[in-house]
Amino acid sequence: MSTNDQSSELQNGDAKPQPDSELHRPEDTAIHPTDNDEGDSSKLNQPIQSSDNDIAPGGVDPKPQGGAEEESDKERTIESKDNAELPKEEGSRTFTMRELLNELKNGDEVSEVSEVAATPAAAPRHSQESTKQHTEKNSAAMDLINSITGSDEEGRSRQRILTFAAKRYASAIERNPDDYDALYNWALVLQESADNVNSDASSPSKDALLEEACRKYDEATRLNPTLHDAYYNWAIAISDRAKMRGRTKEAEELWKQATNNYEKAVQLNWNSPQALNNWGLALQELSAIVPAREKQTIVKSAISKFRAAIQLQFDFHRAIYNLGTVLYGLAEDTSRTGGQDVSPNELYSQSAIYIAAAHALKPNYSVYTSALKLVRSMLPLPYLKVGYLTAPPPGNPIAPHGDWKRTQFVLNHEGLQQIQNGERATVKVEIPDIVSVSPCADLTLPPGPSICIDTIHGQIFLIADSWEYLDTWLDAIRLVYTIFARGFSHDILCGIVIWWWDRLRWS
Questions:
Q1: Whose CA is closest to 200, among 147, 163, 245, 252?
Q2: Is the CB of residue 459 less than 8 Å from the CB of residue 453?
Q3: Cα torsion at 490, 492, 497, 502 (round to 10°)?
Q4: Biased-composition ranges for Basic and acidic residues (predicted)?
Q5: Which of 46, 74, 140, 271 is the most buried (most CB within 10 A)?
Q6: In this structure, are residues 156 and 150 in contact, taking their beta carbons and an 8 Å threshold?
Q7: What is the pLDDT of residue 252?
Q8: d(Cα 77, Cα 376) in Å, to the nearest integer?
């Protein structure tokens, strides 16, 4: 069967190759794909959750070490908050995970504990009843942590550090129940401990640890509503609880809580691609549970979150890939039910652009490689994007509005080119010449969503058919330019276009 035939079958829902369910983990990177549910209509469903150290503009991560790991074994990296945002007394100082690790390595934990215990509590006095309540809560949380046994020596060593940290935070909270930093850091300890829970029946459930972590985050944010890190990690904990419940009503409520917390995190810290990416993932999961009449609105909201993350960090491959998966799912839904302004073929093509870009940025990720095999034939090869834009006549960028014509444009790894009457026309933008690409609002231009491509030779203005269509062109041009700037990633993108085009011609 030819590749074109395969594409047709994919788009009609007759053949759905299963992407790789395993994910290699590069060094110093923690990633969180979610499992494919059997009932999901989309077979391209490998969203990847962010952690705080996801974005590394300096280059591609080292080649993955060892074999593939099951998704359930992934470890989330969560950094504790180092500095308080509101002044607190020195007597209730809390400790970060990094400090604890350093102290244990240096053998100073005993002296530090003694120092903390000897420091007089400067916090305000609380009633005996309040202190008793906090002591009981602390005891319940400590019982959960003390019951955890790691599955190997590394896990046991890690859990000893977490238990030591929990005792410190419990002591700090007993001295000062309003110590929001101690509550926040203790929530992190509980959340990290949940990853150490093994399959032993005597171990506390992961859900119980995450639920207790959520309580600590709730208390911390009530005391200090500006802790955006707390809202972010709280949302991750809620998401992990929701994943355990499948597609139930309880899971739906948890996903809604997670989206609300991601929204608060973004409101407090708008410059966070990770939070936007995870917000989009939570919405994507929620869309699979809610009634069909609500799904389209939630999916569009998820798309906007992924796109916002990419606009903050053009090489944020996780958000790029996740946007590709949600567009693929939308294409499948549209092919079955219709009702969209954009055709399924156009959505499939858009999905393929993002997945190809993610693969070019991170060629070592097996999930991206598998996804590219699924969607490669949906690209309009030998181009990455083909569509229509309204452009001025040749040599007259300030021509009267009536002289502007809607013509075909093509984009590949080399640049953007106008095609008129089957031949290459005047408007041509080489990728290396681009300075910036942005939407613009200029009253001298014809009506409609306009795009400004600023090059070393001057500005080029084009008009799109709709704002949604404008976003797809902006993303495509920016992604190609970003990949070009990454050097060898551009060679990979070039290979996708040329090599697969040669295969299509000979198939």
A1: 147
A2: yes
A3: 140
A4: 17-30, 73-92, 126-137
A5: 46
A6: yes
A7: 96
A8: 33
Q: In a 3-state reduction of DSSP, which class is residue 264?
A: helix
Question: 438 - beta bridge partners?
Answer: 452
Q: Can you give the pLDDT at residue 119?
A: 36
Q: Identify the pLDDT of residue 140.
A: 74
DSSP per residue over 391-406, as a string?
A: EPPTT-TT--GGG-EE
How far lies 25's CA from each of 33, 123, 297, 315, 342, in Å? 11, 44, 33, 18, 36
Task: Indicate the pairing of strand 405-411 with strand 415-420.
Answer: antiparallel
pLDDT in tens, 120-164: 334 444 555 555 555 666 677 777 877 776 667 777 888 888 888
Q: Do residues 244 and 214 lie in contact, with contact meaning Cβ atoms separated by under 8 Å? A: no
β-strand partners of 424:
419
Walk along the chain (507 residues) in steps of 10 and give the mean pLDDT of each run. 39 35 32 36 54 40 33 38 40 48 49 37 48 63 74 78 88 90 93 78 75 95 96 96 93 97 96 96 96 92 96 95 96 84 89 94 93 91 92 86 93 90 79 94 91 94 94 94 81 70 48
Q: Which of 222, 257, 224 is nearest to 239 (CA)?
A: 257
C-alpha span between 78 and 104 (Å, rounded): 19
Strand 423-430 with 385-391, pairing: unpaired
Kindly report the backbone phi and psi dihedral angles of residue 399, in degrees, each rounded to the nearest multiple of 5, phi listed first: -65, 155
pLDDT of the residue at 109: 42
Contacts of 385 (CB under 8 A, 6+ apart): 349, 353, 410, 411, 472, 473, 476
For the CA atoms of 25, 27, 32, 35, the dihedral, rounded to the nearest 10 degrees, stands at 10
What φ, ψ does residue 440 adopt, rounded to 5°? -145, 160
As a whole number of angstroms, the distance between CA 199 and CA 326 comes to 33
